[in-house]
Amino acid sequence: MNNIMHPLLQLQQLTLGYSQGSSFKKIIQNFSLDLQKGEIGSLLGSSGCGKTTVLRAISGFEPVYEGHIYLENHLLAEKGRMVPPEERQIGMMFQDYALFPHLTIEKNIAFGLHKLSKVAAKKITDEMLELIGLQQSAKAYPHELSGGQQQRVALARAIAPSPKLLLLDEPFSNLDVDTREKLALDVRAILKEKQLSAILVTHNQIEAFVFSDKIGIISQGQLLQWASAQEIINSPASSAVKDYIRQDVITAYQKMV
Ligand SMILES: Nc1ncnc2c1ncn2[C@@H]1O[C@H](COP(=O)(O)OP(=O)(O)OP(=O)(O)O)[C@@H](O)[C@H]1O
Q1: What is the CATH number for 91?
Q2: Is residue 182 part of a domain?
Q3: Residue nearest to atom 16 of ligand 1 (CA)
């Protein structure tokens, strides 16, 4: 089956928002994008523009008021219909690691594998430990690792159950600048090695540019452009996009490619 004809994720004409008493506050409007299998996307925008709301609708924690969400052509959400989060096969990784402090690193990674046999879970856990380069820390506890190492464990735990899509909500933002850029590149390499599709939410332009195949620029609940970094630099969809992307980000990106 042709991936181009059937994107992994389709967001079609979404309206998202929150009920406030008897009224409805629209946060996201007319929001559409396609993510292909194996593609890494970012949603980039200033605080409060609605990035997390989109991620929460994809993961199944917020309802859709208009439009449709499809994953591998299966309808996940439309008005009045929500496939529960645990049935979506979508992995998640957040900024606050959310590791279990009383469990060792290997037990944290194996947490989502409880339906598998012990042998099968151990095989995947070992593979994940190798993927993130922390085999030596299997028996350690989270507090014994650095912030960057803890985020690697959070990544391993999120991808161990082989989700169809990984959602990352500002996963690098608690880390210092050097660590975050290196980790963003390491995580990208790991996702590419596993051919995993992902969407990152960030307000950090450099992070979005180095991490993603496609960048979605959101302003005031609207998707201004969904395109590769190079397309956004060469052909910004509007003056708002052109004004939004900082020159130092373009310079840094062009040095890297
Ligand atoms: N449960 C809620 N009820 C009402 N309004 C909400 C709720 N959650 C978020 N909002 C509002 O929706 C808007 C978008 O929030 P969202 O968290 O999606 O933005 P964001 O772009 O991810 O911001 P940030 O980068 O600061 O995390 C904000 O104005 C926020 O106040």
Answers
A1: 3.40.50.300
A2: yes
A3: 50
